[in-house]
Amino acid sequence: MILRKTAVRRGRSLVSLGIVPVTDAPGDLVRRAFRSTAGLALGSATAFVELAYVVLAVPILALRPVRPRVFAGARALAAFEGFRLARYLDGESASGYGGRRALEYLALRWVVGGLGAGIFLLIAWGAVSGAIMGWQIVSGQPIGGGDPVGTDRDWYDPIVVGLFGMLLVFLAVQGLVGVAALDRLLARRFLGPSEHERLRHRVSELATTRAEVVEAVNDERRRIERDLHDGVQQRLVALGVVLGRARRATAPERAGELLRQAHEESQQALQDLREVTWRVYPVALDSGGLHVALESLAERSSVPVTLRYSLAARPDAATETVAYFVASEAVTNAIKHAGAGRIEIDVSGVATGVAVRITDDGHGGASASGSGLSGLARRVAAADGEFALDSPAGGPTVVTAVLPCA
User: Fold this and answer.
1) What is the C-alpha separation between 343 and 336, in angstroms, rounded?
2) Cβ burial 18-42 (10 Å sphere, 16+ → b, else e)
3) Which of 106, 169, 264, 272 has the most CB atoms at less than 10 Å from its CB?
4) CA distance linking residue 7 with residue 105, whole number of Å
């Protein structure tokens, strides 16, 4: 599942954001191509409806009483276009725009749809022409009424037809791709939020993020207190008990055994304290950077951890800190709750910053509302990053975070 922007942006996949590389199978790519083609064909058909509506609506706008109905109709057509873009072309479904903006959008949208219709007509014409020429070649007839059969030009006619057909297919595909891009751009320009609305949304987003930062800090403090209370404090109490028994022991052998136990308890308490301090902030982040810190995390893990680190340059300190804690908490959750036997950490650079992916082979079913993962989401949101969780029942679980890098 994908969390909201305070955890992750709603309505946009990580693939569309350029966060996760596309790994679709060939069958998925073919289905996506057919879906996009169907969306463009539908948009080509609606372009004529929109042209007719604009031609009829513009003169009627002079009549003030009917303007609301004209704008309502324009909004209905624009809403259908938004649905088409979201359903077939991976566009964003917009809302909140007025009727005037919707009418302006339709006045330009029909041009883009008309371009698509023209390309589809050319494709149909090319397909019919290609079928006719292919039949002429197979049957030995002259192509297009050209030279009669038996001249020296016969041998390269199939080659010329094939190359020309490949060129037309390439131009047609590029034309459809361009129409799809124009379609999405036009919708984003007219149906998307205005600058004032973006600013208002950003202010609201920052206010939410600030509250979540405070909550994340409080969660971190509670976690540290819990680790100290349940770990280090209990070890120190046990150490005091053993030392007290050693002081009261009369037999030298018994006292020596108790002192040995006390020494072991002190070593374990020191180890627990190091674990707590390491989780608070690992010194390796300052001395060696994110790569060294993640290597130390992999070495300290109780299950095998594979690290792939492909950043060419070292990120800024704030990005390194958040990236490390995302990996650390995800590894901890995989070990404690998922029963994972192997974990993979992949750190790579993407267009929007640094991407951190943690994959485990556990039983899956992780919930984004859990204390650990929700805390991670808030920590990433505080850095204005993107966070996603994919954990189907039976696994695997994939935690992905993308952090903007200064």
Assistant:
1) 13
2) ebbeeeeeeeeeeeeeeebbebbeb
3) 106
4) 32
Pull the structure tokens for residue 281.
């902030």
The pLDDT mean for the chain works out to 79
Helix, strand or coil for residue 388?
strand
- Calpha distance 400→387 (Å, rounded): 6
Cα–Cα dist 311/162, whole Å: 45
Q: For residue 172, what are its two tokens?
A: 């047609």
- Core vs surface per residue 141-166: b (16+ CB within 10 A) or e: ebbeeeeeeeeeebeebeeebeeebe
CA distance 332 to 69: 59
CA distance 366 to 340: 12
DSSP strand pairing (343-350 vs 305-309): parallel
For residue 205, what are its two tokens? Answer: 């987003």
CB 273 within 8 A of CB 265: no
Q: Is the domain 283-403 a CATH 3.40.50.300 member?
A: no
Residue 145: predicted pLDDT:
60
Structure-token match 């072309």, residue found: 89
Pairing mode of beta strands 386-390, 353-360: unpaired
Give yes or no for a contact between 140 and 149, defined as CB atoms under 8 angstroms apart: yes
**Which residues, 6+ apart, have CB-to-CB distance to 107 below 8 Å?**
54
pTM above 0.85, yes or no: no
Measured distance CA(150)–CA(325) in Å, rounded? 77
Nearest by Cα to 330 from 362, 352, 291: 362
pLDDT for the residue numbered 322? 86
Q: Is the predicted pLDDT of residue 314 greater than 80, yes or no? A: yes
Closest CA to 360 of 385, 330, 382, 380: 330
Going through 271-385 in order, the beta strands assigned E by DSSP cover 305-309, 343-350, 353-360
Say how far apart CA 118 and CA 254 lie, in whole Å. 96
Residue-wise pLDDT for 31-54, tens only, equals 888 889 999 999 999 999 999 999
Sheet of 386-390, strand order: 305-309, 343-350, 353-360, 397-403, 386-390
